[in-house]
Every structure is written in C-alpha cells, then in structure tokens.
Amino acid sequence: MSEISLSQLQDADRDAATKAVEDAMDGDLDLPELTTAVRSLPASWVVEILDRLSSKRGAVLYRLLEKEQALEVFENLDPSLQGDLVGALQDDDVAALFADLDPDDRVELLDELPATVARRLLQGLPPQERALTADILGYPQGSIGRRMSPEFVAVRPEMTCAEALRRVSEHLDDAETVYTMPVTDAHRVLVGIVSLRDLMKAPVGTAVAEVMQRPLDVRATDDAEESARRCADLKLLALPVVDNENRVVGILTVDDALSILESADSEDQARIGGVEPLRRPYLTAPVTGLVRSRVVWLLVLAVGATLTVQVLEVFEATLEQVVTLALFVPLLIGTGGNTGNQAATTVTRALALGDVRPRDLGKVVFRELRVGLLLGILLGSLAFAVTGLIYGSDIGLVIGLTFVSLCTMAASVGGAMPLLARVVRADPAVFSNPFISTFVDAAGLLIYFGIAKAVLGI
C-alpha cells in the first residue's frame, strides 16, 4: 500500500501522489474517492501517472477527469500514448477529444494511428477544422509545416495600434498565441512582426508599420528541427511560417519549438548509445518494442566486429611470438572507440546547435587532430611509465606510441563523421557510432601491430 491515502493527494508531493494513484489502480478501486482525488491534481501530475500505466488502466483513470482537465492532460501526452488512449476509449469520447485539439496536435496524433482510424476521425470533424488539418497534412513528413499552427492573428501595417488590439481581442479564443503576430499586406505576404507589448505601449493612433520589426520567418517545407532551433536562437514567442511566395500559412510557437528540440535531442542521445528511440515512456513500451530498438544495432556492431577478428587473424603469428601483446588489445581498442565517440558526440552536439557546419570539416578535423594528439601524449606517457615498469621498456614504448597514434586517429575520424553524415543527408548520430566502432577497432589494431613489429623487430 502507498504511504498516503487518496484523500491526502492534494497535499502530497508529485512522487507520493503518483505512487498512491498507481497503488489504488492496482488494488480494489474506490472510484468515487479516486475521482475526487485525481481531479484535485495538476494536469502535469496526471500526465506523469498515465505515463506509467497500461493503456487499459490509463483509459479508466482518464475517464475520471473533468472535461477541461482531460483535454489539457491529453494535449500534454506523448503522441504515442495519445494513440494508445484513443484505442482504449469509446468512439464518442475520442471524437470529442479530437475536435477540441489544435490542428497541429491533431496531425501528430494522426501519425500514430492506423489509417482507418485516422480517416474516420478526420471525417467526423467540422468542415473548417477538417480543412485546417488537411492543410497541415499536405506538408512533407519532418517539415515544419507539419508542426505549425494555422490558427493565428495577422494584422496590417496600415492599421492603427488601437485597431490591431481590437482585432486581437476578437480572436483570443481561436488563436494559438497573440503575444507575437505576423504583419501582412493585402495578399497575406509577410512584411514584419509585432509584439502585443509594443501594440499596447504605443499611442492608440500609431500605425502598426511604425512599431513592427523586420520580418523573421521559416519556410513551411524547411526541416522541423532546424526551424525550431531558429525560433529558440531568436528567442521569439512565435515565428511566422511562410510558403514559397512568402505568404503566411501558420506560426511556430516557442512551446512547440522546444518540444521538437526535446524530441530531437532524445533521438540523438538514443542513437549515440546504439539504440533506436522508443518514442514513448519506458514503462509503457512493450518488451518487443525494447528488443526491436536494440537488436538492429547489436547486429550491425556484431557484423562490424568481424573485421576486428580478421585483423587479429592476420597478426596471429605476431601474437604467438609476443603473447604479452594480446593482453593490451581490449584496452587499446576500447580507448580508441571511446576517444572517437567523444569527438563524434561533441561535434554532433555542435552541429545541432549550429556552432559548426559541413563546410567547417577541415577546421574540425584539424582541431580534433590536435586534441587527439594531446590526449594521446598524456595517456601514452602514463602507459609507457606503468607498462615499462612491469613488462619492460620495449613493450612500454609500443603501448605508449600506440596510444599517441590511436587517439590522434580516433579523434580525427570521430570529429569528421558527423559532418560527413550531414553532407550525405544521413543522421549524424546514426552514421557516426557504428562506423567509429568498426573502423577505429580495426584500424587501431593495424596501428598497434605495425608499431609492435617495428619496435620489437618481429
């Protein structure tokens, strides 16, 4: 049993409240008491509870929420969990929920649903909402057009600030945001942006053209992550989205931009670690889904490791002459792989932040070469001292020189891979990890045994 009762939920902290509701769902349900308790919780707490429940139990809990609370909770769930919940709720509940969502949120949910369910939900929408949603669905997957909101307030440059504020007040209920607005001409072409603060601060008779700022925008077909990064870098509450003729077709709000960046960062971190992103909370992911997210990478890395085995086979005679060399193989290839992955992770992050671009390949490689060389000298000096005392100066020199060469090579390759991936339009996180693991292991052994043969004369 939980440490607190359901009647104490409102005064409990988040973790205690979550545990209490989970325990109540696992035990004998007292629905009236649970209903009262859950309705007293913030929406963000309910989202965290649903993240930990199965779809069936989540649907039971979700039905206990009040209508406005239920919509807020649903909007904040991961799209994959929204899809699970849609499958567990009754058709009438789903239709009402779907109609209340913003068009961009609807599109995210539709991407998670079977085609037949998605088609049925779209057909049940009012004509105007269906048209808005269809417009967003018309943009390519991965573009910012799929994540923008078509519900916005636009003002004209010839309007007075008082007229613009009246226009804003008329659309408070149906606009995604009113804190930053596009300024358009008669043909919806973007000519500037203006903030609500500037409109309220200016004298009522001032023209919007006098207080608006230069237009900042993204194209609807631009990459979603790059557009979200631009919005975050510019520190804008909303960024206009335009078509090829510079007409405003939607806006990207800062909360949607941050959501895109968070999702992209989670995806990159997963792939750097050699797994596919789950796209749902861990506890709600099926075991088969966890297996699928890992098995492909394990197979790729296992196939890549056969190259290392072949290199060892080539130098089998060398190992037979100096068996001591075999002791250091795991240490050296492990250090090489770690050095390469460190460089790749650093450069991948710099790419995501816009600090470096593919054209900076030469600068990045030269910088990482120097970093790798210094790391190699530090590690190699230590290895020479320790190994030389135990196995003799010849072996110590082999290990020390290998560290210097291996770290220099691994850092250079690791720094270059993300940039080369971007050039060939591959995900840097996907491209870098398996290549580094395979190439650095095999090349590192060639360097190691080459140095050993030269120093030891074998």
From TrEMBL:
Q: Where is the CBS domain?
A: 148-210, 211-267
Which Pfam family, any one of them, does this sequence belong to?
A: MgtE
The membrane topology term of the UniProt record is: Multi-pass membrane protein
Instruction: Give TM segment ranges.
Output: 371-391, 397-423, 435-456
Which keywords, in A-to-Z order, does the entry hold?
A: CBS domain, Cell membrane, Magnesium, Membrane, Metal-binding, Transmembrane, Transmembrane helix, Transport
CDD domains (UniProt xref): CBS_pair_Mg_transporter
Where's it found, cell-wise?
Cell membrane; Membrane
Q: In which broad location class does this protein mainly occur, judging by the first location in its UniProt entry?
A: membrane
Q: Keyword Nucleotide-binding: yes or no?
A: no
Which family would the database say this protein is a member of? Belongs to the SLC41A transporter family.
**Job description of the protein:** Acts as a magnesium transporter.
NCBIfam families, A to Z: mgtE
Describe its partners and assembly state. Answer: Homodimer.
**What PANTHER family would the database entry show?**
MAGNESIUM TRANSPORTER MGTE (PTHR43773:SF1)
Q: What is this protein called?
A: Magnesium transporter MgtE
Lineage of this protein's species? Bacteria, Bacillati, Actinomycetota, Actinomycetes, Mycobacteriales
Gene that this polypeptide is encoded by: mgtE
